[in-house]
Design brief:
Transposase Inhibitor Protein From Tn5, Chain A, domain 1; 11-stranded mixed beta sheet; 2 domains; single chain; 3-stranded antiparallel beta sheet; alpha+beta
């Protein structure tokens, strides 16, 4: 009786165990030379056919007679790393597996080789002394690589000499514990590079000590950036900058190199007094980014009063969380020489700087700036400029691939989605009739993709 009572229980346990066994995936290991990331070879081909490989070799020169890898090979390797979701330079060793070495037309050097070649492109830091405090700060100015960065944009066609561009400048703090990193107002060690963009693409980067004030030598940095544009026949229509550029020297340099400029003005006692004199009926109520605000304009007289610059003031209501009876306003000002646009148009154009700041997020998280490979600023500057070139190439490439809807990409797709939809595809190389053939195991139309 006892056995017959427990028989159903044992039966249930037995069949449940068998069901779990049947549901488990059966794994068979095959030793075929098949690997992932087959889309990499298409990307390298596009890098070469776009003319960037030849441009890099012509601009940077030959490395030596007995050198196996060229500078274009180094940049191709780094491109392979970051457009495949890699985070650091050392990830290039992953691409040196046997399957990637099957075709001799694609050369994958080691991370040590790339590091050595990038160090060879570094230039010494330049030391500047602040007139007020007497302190010295270092800047790294690599004109040759910045020239390559700008020429690459012209080669890709994302910048047209016939059409004036929009210029953006900002300083981006990069937290790092490198040997020569200095303590910043961000309460961390790092660098504070100045980054200039045209049409939302980085084209000029100067690295600097993390403890340097953003206004320090900024006018000179901007002069060098504008000089690169002039040397390549590129004209600037509009320029946007944040409050870190609000100074008489920067305004002087900027207004001489563009048609109209828009600079966030810092709040100070003189501006607060001018704003307080604005009559209530002069404020125009409107809605920007789904928030109600009030706009007004007044002549700017803090400096260059004879030039009749314009101050566009935006007033936004901030409710008092402790009381329903008292509210306050937040005032934001934009200094400009544009008197033709309305206040709303000025504010909306300036607010588009948020799109340019998206570039910094891409550089930090997708293209290696969060994991700088070297111990010294001059070498990390080389890495930052080269990876900015790779980022510009990626934006150009994904925009063209997005035109083919079969891959499910948009022109604004980030690297993570690009890897999943395009790069990660099984492949193997086959040698037939003395020619290499790339076999892709996918239903996506790589063979019909024409850029």
């Amino acid at each position: 009786m006892l056995f017959s009572y427990f028989t159903p229980i044992f039966a249930i346990a037995y069949f449940s165990k068998q069901l779990v066994r049947n549901m488990a995936a059966k794994i068979h290991i095959k030793n075929d030379r098949i690997n992932s990331f087959g889309g990499i070879f298409f990307i390298i081909d596009q890098f070469r056919s776009s003319g960037l490989a030849a441009l890099a070799d012509n601009t940077l020169g030959a490395k030596g007679i007995n050198t196996r890898y060229s500078y274009s090979n180094v940049i191709e390797n780094l491109t392979s790393v970051f457009v495949s979701g890699g985070e650091a330079l050392e990830d290039v060793n992953f691409f040196r597996q046997e399957a990637f070495k099957a075709n001799p037309d694609y050369r994958f050097c080691s991370a040590d080789t790339i590091g050595r070649d990038l160090r060879g492109l570094a230039v010494e830091n330049t030391e500047f002394q602040a007139a007020e405090s007497g302190k010295s700060y270092r800047l790294n100015i690599n004109d040759r690589l910045n020239g390559l960065l700008l020429k690459a944009l012209l080669q890709l066609g994302v910048v047209n000499k016939e059409q004036p561009v929009t210029f953006d400048y900002d300083n981006q703090f990069i937290e790092t514990e490198k040997y020569d990193a200095t303590y910043s107002y961000k309460k961390a060690n790092g660098y504070l590079p100045g980054i200039a963009q045209i049409n939302l693409h980085p084209f000029y980067i100067e690295n600097r000590d993390g403890n340097a004030n953003v206004k320090f030598e900024q006018a000179e940095t901007l002069e060098r950036a504008f000089a690169h544009l002039k040397a390549n026949g590129i004209k600037v229509d509009k320029a946007r900058m944040d409050c870190g550029s609000y100074s008489q020297e920067v305004v002087e340099v900027t207004c001489c190199n563009c048609n109209t400029f828009y600079i966030r003005a810092m709040n100070c006692k003189s501006l607060e007094k001018r704003i307080a004199d604005i009559q209530e009926e002069e404020w125009q109520e409107t809605e920007i980014n789904h928030k109600k605000c009030w706009l007004a304009s007044l002549p700017f007289t803090a400096f260059f009063a004879e030039r009749r610059y314009r101050l566009v003031v935006q007033r936004t209501l901030v409710p008092d969380k402790q009381s329903t009876l008292f509210n306050s306003y937040v005032y934001r000002c934009i200094l400009t020489n544009d008197w033709e646009s309305s206040e709303r148009e000025v504010v909306e154009f300036y607010n588009q700087r948020g799109t340019s700041e998206r570039t910094f997020d891409m550089q930090n998280n997708d293209f290696g700036w969060k994991h700088l490979p070297f111990s010294f600023m001059k070498e990390n500057t080389v890495f930052m400029i080269i990876t900015a070139l790779i980022r510009n190439f990626y934006v150009w490439l994904v925009g063209r691939i997005a035109a083919n809807k079969a891959f499910g990409l948009e022109a604004t797709s980030r690297v993570k989605k690009f890897v999943f939809r395009f790069v990660q595809v099984p492949f193997r190389w086959v040698l037939r009739s003395r020619q290499w053939h790339l076999q892709l195991f996918t239903s996506r139309p790589y063979d019909r993709l024409r850029l």
